[in-house]
Design a protein that fits this description.
The complex is a heterodimer of chains A (270) and B (422). Chain A is an all-alpha fold and 270 residues long. Chain A is built from ten helices and no strands. Classes of the chains: A mainly alpha (270), B alpha/beta (422).
Chain lengths: 270, 422
Amino acid sequence: MYPTLLDLAIFGYIAATGLSLAYLVQREEWLHRLASVATIAGWVLHAVSLLALAVRLGRPPLGSLSEAVSVAVWVAVLWALWVERQYGVKVLGAFVLPVVLVFGINSTTTRPLAIPGIERALGGAWIWVHIGLVLLGIAAFVLNFAGALMYVLQERQLKAKRPGKLYYRLPDLETLDRLTYRTLALGFPFLTTGLILGVLWAGRAWGSVFAYDPLALLSFVAWVIYAGTLAGRAAAGWRGRRAAYFAIIGFATLVLTLGAGLFLPGRHGS
Amino acid sequence: MTLFVAGLSHKNAPVELREQLAVEEDKLRELLRDVAATGAVQETLILSTCNRVEVYGVAEAPGEARAVVFRHLCRHRGLSHASIEPLLYTHVDDDAVRHAFRVAASLDSMLIGEPQILGQVKDAFALAQACETVGPALHTLFTQAFAVGKRVRSETEIARHAVSVSFAAVELAKKIFAGLGGRAVLLVGAGKMGELAARHLVEHGAFPIYVANRTWQRAQEMARALSGAAVPFAELEAALAGVDIVITSTGAPEPVVTRAMVQRVMHGRRARPLFFIDIAVPRDVEGSVNTLDAVYCYDIDDLKQVVEANIRERLREAQRAEALVEREVAKFLARRGDVEVIPTIVSLRERLEEIRVGEVRKALARLPGATAETRETIEMLSSAIVKKILHAPINKLRESSRAGSSRSWLELVHELFGLGRR
């Protein structure tokens, strides 16, 4: 049941991505409405598939990295829907959904394996808290990345003084800057708490904090980048372009982190 | 009866002629009454703006009606009818509907998307209504044209994106800042253009306004005019530090705002954006400030370039608007067509039903011993035959009305079934 429903959800996200990109190029309201419908449909199917998986496994669907990424995608879509309404950024889908799609497809192709003893390995309630918090952080950083990307594109148009199609479609710089700042402020506490729990747990279960796990190492690099951006924002008043570049670099590191977890041997692997 | 529009517009007639033909309201009223009195038109409406003079109407012979109207118009203005005759265009039926919709949607305007035309069409309609020259045909046409005009305005962006330099500056500011409410503006120099741009910003909520000018008195005057405050020209740099938008329009031969100055100012602003609108020639702001982080500097040529891009964007939107109008025209014609053929369909049905009922009664009179079952069968049989016979002609009528060729078919049906005069 899990793959079928998830495949349908992914199909919904594919349709939503196509429609959102079309809406970015062609200002037809019906494209936007259809994209919203497809996104919501995909999200609901995704929710049901996660629920079905949880029931089948008898535990939260966070036991492997691909499961966790799937949940992160699900949260990111929910937040994207909310942010779109909150900020009135109708083109947001075109920047969030492609990312969602890449992660979503990855989480289906690397199917969760029934590793014997996984329950025991993951024993203790707070490992779920670790995973849950980290993925809430990741979901916020998906939006952070989308906001930053839109900022960089719009800023480039304004500096170049040659208004192109995107100039007309993207919102103003200040709104985009606020969006990246708030998503950073939202995601960072989740990531931080999640990582601290991970460190404590790893120290006890593995006997070492990093234990040569590539994902753990890279995630700290990402954390440092986000921490630096946040500090720069708060203390030195960084905003605009610099903050946007850091958001993009931070997210790239995060993607690398997850990629390392999915494809390199390590303790986080599926 | 044919729906038509005839006239001339900025597309084919020079402005000297258009301004001579433009009619003021009183004359228009007189003209409408005169034309109606000739009996050449059944309904009529005259649209007279500086870009077009057009008569919309319903007439047996549109060509004749057109001649009557423009002969009257020429007499009013002392022009020879022969001189304008070759410039006149005429659209009938579908084309007239399309033309009315395109005019109301501002797609036929000199500046596509300009907002005045819809109001002008509404005024012309109100005037014609007051003169009682509007009948059902023009009434449905124009009510629909207003709806189409409104839809095009709200669903496409043909009326968006500034086509003047000062409005383009306001729109740029709105792409940098989230709304202009409470943004501080500094106006450097007291030129007319600068004042105009500052006013546009104020209209969008910008506040407070500071004015710096080499002549202190002139700065004070301008500050008063804009409900702002004058700042000494020598303290320009200090003033820059506290504002969001700077408009410069001095007559200075050298830049008054240098890159070094802006660099120092930006140091204390924590990347808070600063937007320069430099409309002075020669330029007042060193162009290289644009490369500084969070500084945006547009000179007059840049603004003109933005305006050109805006116009191109409007034209792109106009293509979407044309498609929308086309759909509306088709819808309108389908509806109108049905309205045209429905009375005939109804009388055709009534006529055949009358015959059927009469014949059934006669048949039943000859069958006194008929059972209820037999009666029912005869009823059903006759109904079925009538229905089958009617099927083809009714479909044909509906089709022909949609294809716009209902008139000959209507006549044919009337003749064939003896439905009497329409």
